[in-house]
Amino acid sequence: QVQLVESGGGLVQAGDSLRLTCAASRLTTYMAWFRQGPGKEREFVAAISRDDSPWYWDSMRGRVTISRDNAKNTVYLNMYTLKPEDTAVYYCAASEYGSISARSSYNSWGQGTQVTVSA
């Protein structure tokens, strides 16, 4: 198990940018961000591999970048041009193997950080 703590969420306006941070006890092969909006299933947003290869889901493609700092055991999610439909709890997750975008591949999760985007 990996301990994960997210931070950086908050209330922003549509069009704003925000950076989420995930502090990990250690980084794994794949580090990812998921989100869960009100009344919705938790969905994949982005992931990054140990060699810094990123993957993005269509929901935020072009408006988000993921990065990792192996020296600091930290993963970042930079979000741009936020929309009200981006309102969700954003979760950091860690995996050593499996399908990158599948929830079932990740066995360590943070508590989440709330992002609320007002119109």
**How would you sum up the global shape?**
globular
**Helix residue percentage:** under 10%
State the major sheet: 7 strands, mixed
**What structural category do the secondary elements indicate?**
mainly beta
Spatial separation of the terminal alpha carbons:
38 Å
Average pLDDT metric: 95
Order of helices and strands: EEEEEEEEEEE
Instruction: Report the total helices.
Output: 0
- Rounded Rg: 13 Å
Strand fraction band? over 45%
Please provide the count of β strands. 11
Low-confidence stretches: none
Structural commentary:
Helix content is 0%, strand content 50%. The protein has no helices and eleven strands. Strands 2, 4, 5, 6, 9, 10 and 11 form a seven-stranded mixed sheet that branches. The protein has a four-stranded antiparallel sheet with strand order 1-3-8-7, with no helix packed on it. The model has no long low-confidence stretch (mean pLDDT 95).
Provide the fold topology.
Blueprint: E1 4-7, E2 10-13, E3 18-24, E4 30-36, E5 43-49, E6 54-56, E7 64-69, E8 74-79, E9 88-95, E10 108-109, E11 113-118
Parallel strand pairs: 2-11
Antiparallel strand pairs: 1-3, 3-8, 4-5, 4-9, 5-6, 7-8, 9-10, 9-11
Quick summary of this structure?
With 119 residues, the protein is mainly beta. The protein contains no helices and 11 strands.
Short key terms for the protein model shown above:
single chain, 119 residues, mainly beta, 7-stranded mixed beta sheet, 4-stranded antiparallel beta sheet, 0% helix, globular
